[in-house]
Write a structure and sequence with these properties.
OB fold (Dihydrolipoamide Acetyltransferase, E2P), 2 domains, seven-stranded mixed β-sheet, single chain
Amino acid sequence: TNAIRLAVRKFALDNNYSFYDIREHSGLMRTMQVRICRSGEVMVNIVFGDDDRLKREALLEHIAQHFPSITTLLYTVNLKKNDSLYDLNPVVYKGKGFVIETLEQYSFKIGPKSFFQTNTSQAENLYRITRDFAELTGKETVYDLYCGTGSIGIFVSGGAKKVIGVEMVQEAIDDAKENALYNGIGHAQFFTGDVAKVCNDAFFDEHGHPDVIITDPPRAGMSETLVKKILEMKAPLVVYVSCNPATQARDLNLLSEKYEVTRVRPVDMFPHTHHIENVVQLKILSLHLNN
């Protein structure tokens, strides 16, 4: 990773490329994504702050020539003030446009816009803890909320009767369906939309009521509407995976209306920082189980 980064930096300096100034919102060299997978595949996406074709192609060709180990090389032109890629279109310069990462026996297709944990080894531990907390016996219908590319749902699928994933981002759902197909998992289905709107009585009639809910929201935590929806669903067991214990604590307080916390396990996903992932198991209070 450092070799690629330093080569991009040196080429930019040697050729008088400008670097992006976040205050002035100007400059050519903006950001770069590098993902090195267990499979040996490497994906690099260089993000430019200006649409200068000649300079862009000169840099991309230099990197492609000097780093043949890069299996997918992309570029993205970002003229916005924020760094989000979700409303941009990365362009493939070399390779197939994605990489394959592995967790246990499962393989996952990851593109430049896919959300996938950056620390693969610890992601595997995180998902093992999540699977353990789900206490699956092979008879359960599991709802995977904020499912992203389907990684958690697919990882726990071996112990579930059925997996239902719901996610707002269409590209992520497309990847989740492809990942399920790639892994030969026929009992997982993925749907695009707001969980609070998707999970209605007609949806439950068609796909079954959840026995286990796994929720892995962004740093902002779950919306109050979704918390209310989970309380309405009354699944016997909930596993809450969080990258922000503060918003997780807020949501757990709301869920305490019908649930109690039974297990907690923090995971050090980002060594040498204060950031962690935290997994919490909740079980429904007995007085609400059949009401």
